[in-house]
Amino acid sequence: MTVHQFQPERYYNTIGAHQPVLTLNSGDAVVTSTVDARGWGADGESAAERGNPMTGPFYVEGAMPGDTLEVIFESITSNREWGWTSNRLAPNVVDPEFAAQLPPSDIVRWTVDVRQGIAFPEQRAGKLANLQLPLRPFFGCFGVAPAKGQSISTATSGEYGGNMDYRGFTAGVRIYFPVFTEGALFHLGDGHALQGDGEIAGTGVEISMDVRFRVQLIKGKTIGWPRGQTDTHVFCVGNARPLDQALQHATTEMLALLREDYGLTVTEASLLLGQAVQYEVANVFNPAYSVVCKLPKSVIEML
Amino acid sequence: MTVHQFQPERYYNTIGAHQPVLTLNSGDAVVTSTVDARGWGADGESAAERGNPMTGPFYVEGAMPGDTLEVIFESITSNREWGWTSNRLAPNVVDPEFAAQLPPSDIVRWTVDVRQGIAFPEQRAGKLANLQLPLRPFFGCFGVAPAKGQSISTATSGEYGGNMDYRGFTAGVRIYFPVFTEGALFHLGDGHALQGDGEIAGTGVEISMDVRFRVQLIKGKTIGWPRGQTDTHVFCVGNARPLDQALQHATTEMLALLREDYGLTVTEASLLLGQAVQYEVANVFNPAYSVVCKLPKSVIEML
Amino acid sequence: MTVHQFQPERYYNTIGAHQPVLTLNSGDAVVTSTVDARGWGADGESAAERGNPMTGPFYVEGAMPGDTLEVIFESITSNREWGWTSNRLAPNVVDPEFAAQLPPSDIVRWTVDVRQGIAFPEQRAGKLANLQLPLRPFFGCFGVAPAKGQSISTATSGEYGGNMDYRGFTAGVRIYFPVFTEGALFHLGDGHALQGDGEIAGTGVEISMDVRFRVQLIKGKTIGWPRGQTDTHVFCVGNARPLDQALQHATTEMLALLREDYGLTVTEASLLLGQAVQYEVANVFNPAYSVVCKLPKSVIEML
Amino acid sequence: MTVHQFQPERYYNTIGAHQPVLTLNSGDAVVTSTVDARGWGADGESAAERGNPMTGPFYVEGAMPGDTLEVIFESITSNREWGWTSNRLAPNVVDPEFAAQLPPSDIVRWTVDVRQGIAFPEQRAGKLANLQLPLRPFFGCFGVAPAKGQSISTATSGEYGGNMDYRGFTAGVRIYFPVFTEGALFHLGDGHALQGDGEIAGTGVEISMDVRFRVQLIKGKTIGWPRGQTDTHVFCVGNARPLDQALQHATTEMLALLREDYGLTVTEASLLLGQAVQYEVANVFNPAYSVVCKLPKSVIEML
């Protein structure tokens, strides 16, 4: 169990079969950093091309298609004192008639006070003059190389993860990816200091991050979509448009989880999910939307 | 402020401009009961035609189009010891390829233990033998008569409310409806002892209810979609297909709320919602799906 | 077989169980007129409230739920020399980012020259100065009273017909509706002198009409959605949002047609439809979109 | 203007920045062949991995990002006497409740008689015993390398083309692609002997092809999505889910075409499209659906 220090030198704007930057063994941890969605780093300077540049990929020794890769973010910390957001809701999240009345959009800087654990728009004026929101740092975009040797833009997401922009992917959460390529090839980036559900302004509070993560290889376990667990819930992620289809993917994966990991029949899983399931709208902005299907562990413990 | 005791004698399977059963003044409360989604009452006998039969409508003195009607469910209590659910997920919430493999669906009885506050499938076998879920009683379908003299099936929903199947509509929540007709004409029914998000099996634990609710007329305040507040949140509901459009309606209504009630500009509301909004998938089964757009009161208090 | 002359005096903005204006026997024809979508009649004066006011309803002797009503428009003729359209695409038919740049919308008058069979914007300027489009008159909104005693706004559509805005509903086409109510209760209105696919500006060339139609009752034949036939095709209509669901309804109804009327198995129907089906996007503007699923009669004749 | 004979040796299951197999000058033609969607060639033997293996890519001298590549299929001819289709409609094109009743799906062989120009299921039995459908050969999947160095599965499509499965892409049609990469890198494959609208069984009559195509480079012309023209129409293609969004892309691109190529204002384009536009549902099966927005040249000639 090694802890690797890794200083990124180049970044990729696609997730795919790129040359690995480091080889990890199952159980290893990595301490590294990420630039923000526009490629601006800890010093505020441009270090990469805009569009969710990724740190990595990291090659996991022994990972083969059909395995599962567990990733745990042990810590996620903003490494500068400001972030930025859009100042306009995405036109696709309001009624089309209202979209036709939206003002032009711009980028706004936010102060990110890591010590106090809060963030707020830099310009303290108008109705938001006293707003301060708690930090809840997470990564918007990360995952493994997709199937068939594809390289896919970090704007979007799929079975392999990618730009899911789920505010629940905070430190401490265990996340599982299906492995599609030898070595899995884990990429990460697009840090958000905080964000609402759905990423409906098209951004979180975009920021560069210091991160420590650990990988664990689960040989011979095959899953279809990203899964995860927190202290209180297990969950599955579906990525697609429209929301209906993202929800279908996440729900179908949860059915698979209940059948494979807990031995439920489809009927038992239906009775359970119908009365106990929870959903989150992770993002409703990217080319693929993301929906999270959750079950409380308190319910699972009764099975 | 009168408390009316009302014993329903007939039920409607549409929400519309039906003959009112009672006239209320603003502030009045009503103690009454509802049958379940199939028309079965407290004694388990059929009292109405299946398809969400409604108690009411109640005429609110002075309510005119352009006003808002506030409804508070002061208590919602199952008045029998069993409910029922479907035992199969709705085919539209799973991947279509998987839908083609779903088993046939049937109705299953659940024990509803009001004293202990729990429910579970009557047949205690298999992996669910030890399952028991906490009661969280609410009404699936209620609202006011829609615009233009329409009478609309209680299967669906719209600006007027209707079959929203939102598990958050529990006792204590304040709910606001746009008034479209003289007297508002409030209907209610379709009690659920509990339900997961989305009503993904097509039912909650369907049950007959005793209810006490109060109405409050807000003259001259005009809203576009149902709104509400709990102790911790304000929220807006959008009803439409697909989920994307339901979310658009709910988000656009929340923008209207922030502009009208709190004086925010579109830009301020965008900055706020982008980083603080929350969503719930209320139902993803009915002809119109329902999405709830929420803001914590703790955030609103900073405005 | 009587030909009734009927001069409408009042109009309904919902389709529902209204008092019939005339009783027809199967085989009877009616000669009547309709006002336009805003209620303007042949003389250009307002005769009804805006929002697709309907002529009718007509009661068909002997029609009972479970029957099918055939309607043939024998002639449809604009009864004035001008119509109107919106001058802006509906925001929901363009990319949301582009919707945010759309100009404000307005109503524009078109000259409708029935003798020459053409129409064009009245203001002959700019790039459209020489535009003239062939007339193709049809009714945007018509149908029978919906199930359960509902009265539904003429803005939308469903199994009962309604505001389908399908440019294929021209004179000579035979159209079939499921009967939900005693007497069927046929309504019609919302004439268009012509229109593109999808009604993407939110209007056709809206105009008042003279019409002659005939009804034929088909006892004991039950269908699920509107169907029709032209000289060259049979077709089924699905009405819902999004387009995907409208297409699902239309396709499922076509499967039913092939199974019931021609005895095909699901597999045979799949082989056939997969390689021979045709679709039209009837409307992508109204609360329910409409998709038409078609098969050439030349193909059906091989069965 | 050279005519290149090219015999493919390897095939790609992604569209991307692969090593070019041949360099073409603008105006050059290529005579080559493609295997079918499962990789079966003219001799019926497996020559490539299943999943729309591509012939190419072809490098076009001088093509740079921001240019447009015109492709004309001069001839498309099945090079064997049989094809295959699925025998079951895709579960996503029927009502979800009906999907749950679909039979299992299988592959069925079709006789393809190039001389007579017809095709029919090999097994001549049941209601389809006399069916024969006219050949209308086209390519389901072709396009240029996508932006950002992506390599994307030939299952799907985007701005770069890909698996659009549009039955209108027959010989003689001129098709235009935005160039995203130096050399454009044109790929093609997935021949269909014929197909209905929407590819609703998930396949056309899948077959290997002989093809002759020509490329023409249009320097400095930038488009957003694939466009094309036939003898009678100009058209634009949008690829996305759901159909609504594919239609939005296609319509927005048609607006761009009318503004840039014909100088119309948004208002003029709206007046025109609203009353003259036509749509086709190209595919409603792949991960991205495809919708075609068309205008008759007879209308364009009036501008």
UniProtKB/TrEMBL annotation, chains A, B, C, D:
One Pfam family linked to the record: FmdA_AmdA
InterPro entries tied to this protein: FmdA_AmdA
GO MF, any single term: hydrolase activity, acting on carbon-nitrogen (but not peptide) bonds, in linear amides
Gene3D superfamilies the UniProt entry points to: 2.40.10.120, Acetamidase/Formamidase-like domains
Domain of life: Bacteria
The protein's name in its UniProt record: Acetamidase
Upper classification of the organism: Bacteria, Bacillati, Bacillota, Bacilli, Bacillales
